[in-house]
Amino acid sequence: xxxxxxxxxxxxxxxxxxxxxxxxxxxxxxxxxxxxxxxxxxxxxxxxxxxxxxxxxxxxxxxxxxxxxxxxxxxxxxxxxxxxxxxxxxxxxxxxxxxxxxxxxxxxxxxxxxxxxxxxxxxxxxxxxxxxxxxxxxxxxxxxxxxxxxxxxxx
Length: 155
What we know:
Blueprint lengths: L1 H52 L4 E7 L9 E8 L5 E11 L2 E9 L5 E6 L4 H27 L5
Antiparallel strand pairs: 1-2, 2-3, 3-4, 4-5
């Protein structure tokens, strides 16, 4: 009698585990499939930002794989500078400002130095104030933190 009860419990647990595993794998599949679309949209947004900020200066190439926990709130792209044909990196990372969370763009100067380029989608009349209010805190923090994040990627 005890064996039948145990077998029934194991059967119920197995069915519940199978259902959870199915939903988890389905969610993972959708995440993987949507990643390409997400990167394509971010690439287009970065191209528009760079064209507006630095006309005819940069060409956005491929997305880089960031191998850290920050990959959910940041991304990196290879960019080519037209004038010098040098390869650089552009990093987009969400930064909390006085006006909420906005994606900030940082451009590599060298392997370990990143320069803040601006906020994507922030109205221009707010951007100057947000930059001056954030320059010594969050922008400075991310300028120092980005090299270690980007260097964890698989080059």
